[in-house]
Amino acid sequence: MKKYDIVFIGGGPSGYTGALRARDLGFSALLIEKSKVGGVCLQLGCIPTKALLASASLIDKITRAVQFGLEVRLDTPHKLWKISEKKDVIVNELTQGLIQTLKRKGVEILQGEASFKGPHVLTVKGENGAEEIEGQVIVIATGSRPQELPGIPFNHTNILSSDDMLTLREVPKDLAIIGGGVIGCEFASLFAVLGSKVSIVEMLPQILPLSDKDIAKRLEVLFKRRGIQVFTEKKMEKLSSDGAVLSLLLTGGERVSCDKMLISVGRRRNVENLGLENVDINVDKGTILVNGFLETSVAGVYAVGDVIGSPQLAHVAQAEAICVVDNLRRERRAMNYRGWPNTVFTHPEVASAGLSKEEAEKAGYEVEESRCLFGALGKSHVERETDGIAKLVFDRKTDKLLGGHIIGENASDLIAEISLGIRLGAKREDLVNTMHAHPTFSEVIWEASRNI
Ligand SMILES: Cc1cc2nc3c(=O)[nH]c(=O)nc-3n(C[C@H](O)[C@H](O)[C@H](O)COP(=O)(O)OP(=O)(O)OC[C@H]3O[C@@H](n4cnc5c(N)ncnc54)[C@H](O)[C@@H]3O)c2cc1C
Fold it and tell me: Helix, strand, coil: what percent of the chain each, to 5?
């Protein structure tokens, strides 16, 4: 039986980042993957969606070329299959690059499906049969998959998951999206630009339910301006089908018809078929339970990434994997999520870190909020991207930065400063006294910090 210092089950961002870190620290490392290295993020999530959104962003810019003094026309309708081919090239290039990096660093990759035989022994079933592997430390990094609506399974033709959306070759005429969270909003933004008539149905009072209220409202307004229908506090009560057309009856009696429907109501963690019951690893409602050090109920077995209860984001998954590996070489430190950035790649982008005003008040802070509109920046006018706002939340007593919430161009990059500020305990004067290059979008943080 082959033995390793550390074995990762799952080759997504948490698995491959942890395995690379393990090699950097001198451990022997094995990465077991049943499908493709890169996981959801590289194969079906972050990268392919952002590749499509990059094409959409260019379409949007070309459509607005006149604002830049240019006369340029686009061939329409857009050929989604062509845009998709470009996306596949990017995904393949990055996958090959990742495999090479793993090999160069000495990470062993084993193709197959792993399950626990004992606390430190895995059975891996691959094309050439089953083999047993021993890991002194085992990290479960098996990720998640799209969640179905009860009674409405994905049929992969017109009732679609986010995975299916990436295989579409034609732009749907009418696209209904059930669930206005991050994934739903990103696909809405994308397909509205490509020419679909998009409707979002969200059962909570706002789209992006985890985002700052004002910012989510602003996105809704901008979506509606782009022709996206947004139904909040509505559920799909009934679904009927007339051949190729789906008809949705919403709470209150409104009807939405579509040729494709995306169900984006969350993700199920991959805890099945892992033999967790063989080793008494505690699972609650489909989530692997871990302590502050990300250790499961079995000593030496950890779980990281989408499969545990933390925010389902690639960078969170990566940070968790690094925490586990680093703890094998130093005095153990609990995973520190402070300042984690949440990003939504709509147009315009949405990003946040830390506490919202309401959360800070609930936590007992005396709060001071400062704002700046993107329209106040020279850069926004140059780039013709004036829609947006940045809100900073400070503790009035200590002047410390508690949170930042942004909707606007490049919000996903701008939020890094807020994350760092929160982690370093930055005060308002630290932001004010830091020179921000002019003209850049980053000035929105500087201006907001100065607006008392
Ligand atoms: C449409 C979409 C867009 C997204 N966009 C973003 C984004 O822009 N930014 C962001 O931060 N996050 C984004 N995410 C979320 C991000 O993809 C996940 O948070 C991230 O992939 C989680 O990483 P992971 O390593 O935990 O798991 P995964 O990436 O899910 O990888 C788990 C891997 O484990 C393998 N596996 C499962 N069971 C076994 C087994 N028994 N044996 C062997 N292998 C197994 C799977 O095949 C898979 O490859 C997006 C997700 C989706 C669906």
Answer: 35, 30, 35
pLDDT single digits (tens) 223-244: 999 999 999 999 999 999 988 8
Task: Measure the CA–CA gap between 91 and 114, rounded to whole angstroms.
Answer: 25
pLDDT at residue 330, rounded to an integer:
85
Question: What are the tokens at 44?
Answer: 């079906």
Ligand 1 pocket test, candidate residues 21, 30, 44, 46, most atoms within 8 A of CB: 46
Is the whole model's pTM more than 0.90, yes or no?
Answer: yes
CB of residue 52 inside a 6 A radius of ligand 1: no
Looking at the chain, the number of H-run helices and the number of E-run strands are 13, 24
Q: Is 32 in the pocket of ligand 1 (CB under 6 A)?
A: yes
Whose CA is closest to 205, among 229, 188, 174, 180?
180
In the sheet where 260-263 sits, what is the strand order? 159-160, 260-263, 174-178, 197-202, 229-232
Region of 273 (left: φ > 0; alpha: ψ -120 to 50; beta: rest) is left
| Cα distances (angstroms) measured from residue 71 to each of 58, 60, 63, 68, 194 | 15, 14, 10, 9, 20
Structure tokens at 386: 């004036």
- For ligand 1, atom 3, the nearest C-alpha belongs to 45
Active site (annotated) includes residue 438: yes
